[in-house]
Amino acid sequence: MASVSVKNIYFSYGAEGGSPEPVLRDVSLDIGEASFTAVTGRTGSGKSTLLQILAGLLAPDSGSVTIGGREIYSAADPGEGGTRRFRKQSQKKAAIPRKEICRLAGMVFQYPEHQLFEASVLADVMFGPLNMGFWKEEAREKAEAALKAVGLDMQYCEKSPFRLSGGEKRRAAIAGVLAMDPEIIIFDEPTAGLDPAGRREIAGIALSLKEQGKGIIWASHYMDEAADLADRVIVMDAGRIAMDGSPAEIFSRTDELRALGLDSPEPVRILSELKKAGIEAGAGVTSDGAAAGILRAWRARHDP
């Protein structure tokens, strides 16, 4: 299991031209072992960029990232006058080899087509372990175990990944990350575009991985997912962390969320409307919590 520590991260795209407006601004956070952290925010808030830095896919202009006690990126020196100096993209390098980063953190992209490229599902899922130096038979064992873990049995092995359904592609992409056995799995909008059944399947896989001791970082604009799945919610705005706390803490701050262009989970909205109608059903943020509160309110009114 691994914890994550991010200190004073700045990042901007196309830094070669000088000091453009940063996408991330002095972001610092610590994430404990085997936690389920949801990251949310409007489009352009910086959440996807932050996730790619945590996965070792982008290097910050300055600041440091440590996963499992290992420094992935180290801080840059301040520029003249003590101001922060943005390094050129070509100068950004990780402190450890890429394959070692893959053992610490793996990322599942929003669009599985960005991860799937081999002729067969099995070959695709084997690619990561092979690239990490495992023998072919070891890589196959890891790939088969990962496919089983996401609910894709052996009949999928020889299929083209591009002939799978949307939900199956997402599961194959997750298997490709799982096969490398990272300690933290980062999901970037993993349920976008899926039907409710597909969203539940992917969420169930993530929860199962957390139960196995994996750390989960889950970026989503679905507030209900953050409320139901996470034990911590981070809200980003304009490249900064605007809010950070438990789902109950974050989703009780409805006015602040609205000011950031975000809505509350549906259970919170339903309970709020009931309260306006004079029915006190509690302040749950999850579907189960809201249902329990509504049931208690109904019984209080109707039971003798």
Which terms would index this structure?
10 strands, 6-stranded mixed sheet, 4-stranded antiparallel sheet, single chain, 38% helix, alpha/beta, 304 residues
Summarize the structure.
With 304 residues, this protein is of the alpha/beta class. It has helices at residues 47-54, 98-104, 121-131, 136-149, 166-178, 196-211, 223-229, 247-251, 254-259, 266-276, 287-302; strands at residues 4-11, 24-31, 36-41, 62-67, 70-73, 105-108, 184-188, 215-219, 232-237, 240-245.
Mean pLDDT: 81
Q: DSSP helix count?
A: 11
Structural class: alpha/beta
- Which ranges are low-confidence, i.e. pLDDT below 50, for 5 or more consecutive residues? 77-91
User: Largest beta sheet: what is the strand line-up?
Assistant: 6-7-8-3-9-10
Q: How large a portion of the residues is in β-strands, by DSSP E?
A: 15-25%
How far is it from the N-terminal to the C-terminal residue, by CA? 52 Å
Characterize the biggest β-sheet: 6 strands, mixed
Net shape: globular
Task: Give me the count of strands.
Answer: 10
Radius of gyration: 21 Å
Helix content: 25-40%
The helix-strand sequence is: EEEHEEHEHHHEHEHEEHHHH
